[in-house]
Amino acid sequence: MAKQPPAFKHTAVTVQSRKGADPLVAVTCYDYTFARLVDEFADIVLVGDSLGMVVQGEHNTLGVTVDDVVYHTRAVSKGLHRAHLVADLPFGSYQGCVRDAVNAATRLLGEGKAEAVKLEGGVAMADTVDRLVSIGVPVMGHIGLTPQSVHQFGGFKVQGRSDEARTMILKDALALQDAGVYSIVLEGIPAPLAKEITAELRVPTIGIGAGPSCDGQVLVITDLLGLNPSFKPKFVKNFASLSSAVSEALSAYRREVKAGTFPDKEHSF
Q: Is the pLDDT of residue 96 over 70?
């Protein structure tokens, strides 16, 4: 029997239609198991290049490759039925020329089964966005604190505090909208600036460290579940403290193995 489609599937079109309406819920995750759990609750699932830090243990996102993102996106896609799936274009895969961006994006949609791509940058990326959209690739923008520019910023620092920086970020947002993005991530900017941008745009904004006025919010799954208590920037809220639960489970497992009480008769063939 053919697999039945879900009753409702979020797409780039439905995401864009939520502008100014019911807030969008976005979650970043990287594997099938978490994707299955997230799918019931998230409108958007992002496979972010943050996997370089969360999964690979690096200090930034710059070493992530297209192959890495394809691998994780394909795994996540198998766990989703409702949520809209977006994949990050990693550093170096789209900045060089439009042809590079097209090649990387088509791999993420074709091999990775993504339904859209996300790229960082505003005015400088407008031509690239326009080309991707023209060939049928939905594009989510990302401005403000763009992690791929960590060295240029001198670290992961809030952007848009000065009048000049505020004006540039607003120009970036408008340039992306004009180029055809269907939504824009606002990261690490003052809440009043995020509110101003959100009011100015026709496309929805998704905030992370950008205050409550965006059209949606995104957090990384390991952050919202409290799986890494040593990582707690101001914008992260732990909605659970699962690191302690994991430690308790591992401790109990170790005790029983050492004591010879696991596996017992119930767990043996």
A: yes
Residue 238: helix, strand or coil by DSSP?
Answer: coil
Please tell me the pTM assigned to this model: 0.95
Mean pLDDT of all residues in 190-208? 98
Residue with tokens 């059209």: 215
**pLDDT digit string (tens) for 121-142?**
999 999 999 999 999 999 999 9
Task: Taking residues 59-72, report their average pLDDT.
Answer: 98
Q: What is the number of alpha carbons within 13 Å of residue 252 lying toward its C-beta? A: 6
3-7, 32-36, 90-94, 262-266 — which is least confidently predicted? 3-7
Torsion of CA 203, 209, 213, 219, to 10 degrees: 70
The whole-angstrom separation of Cα 168 and Cα 38 is 35
Q: Give the C-alpha separation, 15 to 125, whole Å.
A: 22
**Which sequence positions are flagged as catalytic?**
187
Domains of the chain are 12-238 (3.20.20.60), 241-269 (no CATH)
Output the six-digit token pair for 96: 């060089």
The pLDDT of residue 7 is above 90: no
Q: Amino acid letter at 111?
A: E
Angle at 200 between CA 194 and CA 204, to 5 degrees: 70
* Residue that the structure tokens 């591992």 belong to: 250
**DSSP per position, 35-59:** HHHHTTT-SEEEE-TTHHHHTT--S
- Kindly report whether the peptide bond that precedes residue 138 is cis, defined as omega within 30 degrees of 0: no
DSSP string for residues in 189-213:
--HHHHHHHHHH-SS-EEEESS-TT
